[in-house]
Amino acid sequence: MTNISDIEDHQFNHLFLHERMDNNKDKEEAYLIDLINNINDNTTDKEYKKLVFAMRKKHKVVPGVIILNYLYKKCIQNKTIKPNKHFEKFNIRNETRATSGITQITVLTSPRPNGQDFTCEHNCYYCPNEPAHEENNWTPQPRSYLFNEPAVRRANENKFDAAWQVWHRASALELCGLPVDKVELYILGGTWGSYPIDYRIEFVRDLYYAANTYYHDKTEQCSNMRPRLSLEEEIEINQTTDVRIIGLTMETRPDHVTADEIKLLRRMNCTRVQIGVQHLDYEILKKINRGCYYDDVKRGIYNLLNCGFKVEIHLMFDLPNASPDKDKALINQIFRIEENGEYNFADPNITFDEAKYYPFQSVDWTVTKQWEDKGEYLHYSHEDLIDVLIYAKSHTPPSIRLARVIRDIPVSYVYAGNNVPNLRQLLEEDMKKKNLVCKCIRCREVRNKKTDINNIIMNIREYDASGGHEYFISIESPDKEIIYGFCRLRLSPNMGMILTGGYSRDKSVSINKDEDVNLFPFLNNVAVVRELHVYGNMTPHKSKKNDSQANSPRESYQHRGFGKMLLKEAERIAVNNNYHTIAVISGVGVRKYYEKCGYALNNNYMMKDLDFYDDVDKAAWFISIILIIYCVGNAFFCMCYL
Fold first, then answer.
1. Which neighbouring-strand residues pair with 504?
2. In which pathway does it act (predicted)?
3. Cβ distance 300 to 501 under 8 Å?
4. Cα separation of 363 and 376, whole Å?
5. Residue 252 to residues 191, 403, 505, 626: CA-CA distances in angstroms?
6. Which secondary-structure segment (H or E) carries 296?
């Protein structure tokens, strides 16, 4: 049996390995080379697994996926072997992380941004505020987050440095065999708008810098790394670099969605905003000291949609003062069933694209935990919670993606409330027994399923939203059970306009009346594509249509023209509604894609003139007239001479 060294960090160029390594590297390399030499175009999944067992027996070593990928990269660098696509497509771990078409990386902001002693100026009673103590290495945590949550641990290990968080997480994903060239970044930690502006700009700058320099050699304390440039310069570089940021998501409150905040978000090329709604019942919100009510949510969503952002909301069930009936009433207030049997939005002021359904959990360092310690029990029964969550999932419209159904809080923190970490899986099993289904996007994603790619339909769902009209254009299977991709198009007479009102954070005064502000005049009378997404195993941006299948043993639905089909349909709808310009709120890393589709950069949006459609229509009309005249003349000529 091979001796095992102590756990230590191993670094090679841009990769960081946090695994046990065998002392006898020669055996592992021989195993790898032998494995690669026995794989060919015709090797199946089943044959590969048999081959792996045979190699383990032959070489007396059992290296896992991560160590094999690390050695593979190192051997290529040392020219011991050549790149082998067959090995790459089989040696994958956690493949589902890339089946949504992108690779997601989550980073957290500092608990002490530029020395500031808070990360959220509010005090919601259910929200943890973990102080410095021995178990977290005497480091306080960003508001709402706990030290032992996976992403939070990674942030602590990297001292909350934005670039190092990206480098280490991308390295871990690459060593799992996953592509990291199309990255969607999620920024968590406290309330984004509560952080100092200069800290926020520097943090986001460092995210782009991390992507732009990911493949640079980081040995010798990064002594060979280039200096960090300005935010705008790093964004410019990211358009054509190897690792591209195709989406950037921030987390804030609805009452923080102000004019200045939106301008800064767009300067950073933020494309999605997560906002905590939690509930719409006034008494429940008052009980938890939320300080953010229906009108704030209505205004925040209005402002985000009319600037083209994708909107993700958080809803919390089982809150203090709530009941199963009140939580079901919340769902009924937001969603309604239509004549075709599908659910849609009931309130045009509360619409969104993604949601997280979070059951309330009592944890340490919260006011609600103090209530529990005094003998108050704040939760309804677990059976009632299951019933409410099933009700919520089964009522969710097919245009919404349920990103999460429970929060990833380790059970050790949970004092009361849900303590079942795999609750979503159990819910789906329970729903299946009851012949109930969730029609949300996540439950219908094609992922790596084997399907008939030629048997698809284009479906269009519509709904009113914040004074405008939304089109959810999707490519699906005929039974609508599988979704391959979709496009969100917004047509609004108030595009580029936002509402200012409610609580002014700068002046600390109450503004009684909402007032329209023309924040982005260049979006006035412009149709806006808020999202374009194609699902399936993520295909690197350098791949061509013909070799997208070759890069994965699973089904890949990217680079098949679905995106262009959806975009053309959005343009057609815009023209039919008398729009002459269309815009896309595009991530930096996909700007080149839109350029190929005829779009050009304008004020950090990709925009396209649609007047050519009118020219095409006029040409078609002119040709039709000529053909009619020709046919009539030809018929008259024949009658005269017969």
1. 509
2. tRNA modification
3. no
4. 14
5. 5, 17, 14, 59
6. helix 294-305
Query: Could you give the CA distance from residue 42 to residue 49 in angstroms, rounded to a whole number?
Result: 14
Instruction: Please tell me the pTM assigned to this model.
Output: 0.90
How does pLDDT run across 171-189, given as a tens digit for each residue? 999 999 999 999 999 999 9
Place of tokens 């081959």: 51
What mean pLDDT is predicted for residues 478-486? Answer: 96
DSSP of 490-525: EE-TTTTEEEEEEEETTTTEEEEEEEEEES-GGGTT
Measured between alpha carbons, how far is 173 from 588 in angstroms, rounded to an integer? 21
Phi and psi angles of residue 502, each rounded to the nearest 5 degrees, phi first: 70, -135
Q: Given a cut of 90, is residue 593 above it in pLDDT?
A: yes
pLDDT tens string 369-426: 999 999 998 899 999 999 999 999 999 999 999 999 999 899 999 999 999 989 999 9
d(CA 189, CA 453): 41
Give 619's pLDDT tier (boundaries 50, 70, 90). low
Long-range contacts of 386-390 (CB under 8 A, 24+ apart): 386/426, 386/427, 386/430, 387/324, 388/317, 388/318, 388/324, 388/327, 388/328, 389/317, 389/357, 389/359, 389/423, 389/427, 390/427, 390/430, 390/431, 390/434, 390/436
Which pair of tokens denotes residue 415? 């004092």
**Would you state the torsion angle of the CA atoms of residues 443, 445, 448, 452, taken in this order, to the nearest 10 degrees?**
120
Give helix 197-212 / helix 162-175 axis angle, nearest 10°. 30
- Which range among 269-283, 290-304, 527-541 shows the weakest confidence by mean pLDDT? 527-541
User: Tokens at residue 192, please?
Assistant: 């984004």
| Distance (Å, whole) CA 445 – CA 232 | 35
Contact 463, 348 (CB under 8 A): yes
Strand pairing category for 509-518 and 457-465: unpaired
